[in-house]
Amino acid sequence: MRRRNGEKMKNTVATVKQQKKDGDKITMLTAYDYSIARLMDESGINMLLVGDSLGMVMLGYEDTLSVTMEDMIHHTAAVSRGAKNALVVGDMPFMSYQTSVYDAVFNAGRLMKEGRCNAVKLEGGAAVCPQIKAITEASIPVIAHIGLTPQSVNAFGGFKVQGKSEEAARRLLEEAKAVEEAGAFSVVLECVPAKLAALISESIEIPTIGIGAGAGCDGQVLVYQDMLAMFSDFKPKFVKHFADVGTMMKDGFAAYIKEVKEGSFPAEEHTFKIDEDVIKKLY
Ligand code: KIV
Questions:
Q1: Segment 71-89, tens digit of pLDDT
Q2: Which residues lie with the beta carbon below 6 Å from any ligand 1 atom?
């Protein structure tokens, strides 16, 4: 998205919705810190998601359930400081909104006030529509998240593709319509069969952002450590490695270790000088 003079334009809820109308695919990646946010922002990404996936890829938990509001605020604030043009979305962690509408508005407000994000995301369909409505009415834009919702991993009995039977597919379509009706300005579809995701995208006006949901969505999101091959615990089927940064990093670390061991780093150009007569007096 650019202004006429070539300067990049700030992505907003309005520009993201317009992208769907224009058939311009929406790009989103997860980010969890300032440096990565700056790099992605400078690359022209539309939205940065500070996902609760940080529990797995940044903190090493086996799922997202232990992530706290404090974790989310800390990382969201860092990303917000690095994002000039991208719309920053803060994820609401497990049990920060399921408990009540009051908790949902209170915690969404904290993410915005303390994390300085532009929108929040929460998982669930019809069950969390009262929360989506109340948060939206508090002037906080909401992205919904349906299909495979990782915070429900125990209820699902694992990370599985959703909406495969006729009944489940109909339910997902209804969930998408319900979150739109409740006021969400966009909806993430995770691990949904591609044809169903395309049908959902045609059936609602708000943009769909797919992850493992095929090319028929209005936009795509990936976890950045996945798409840069930096996370090797497992590789979901929907992940493509766009660069092998994991290998580049390991090569860089190995080169550093070698040079430190053999004494070739730091070299002359990396060191600070002191006058000879000053140092001589110390011997
Ligand atoms: O937490 C996250 O990163 C997410 C995306 C995978 C959509 O919810």
A1: 999 999 999 999 999 999 9
A2: 30, 49, 51-53, 91, 145, 188, 190, 211, 221, 223
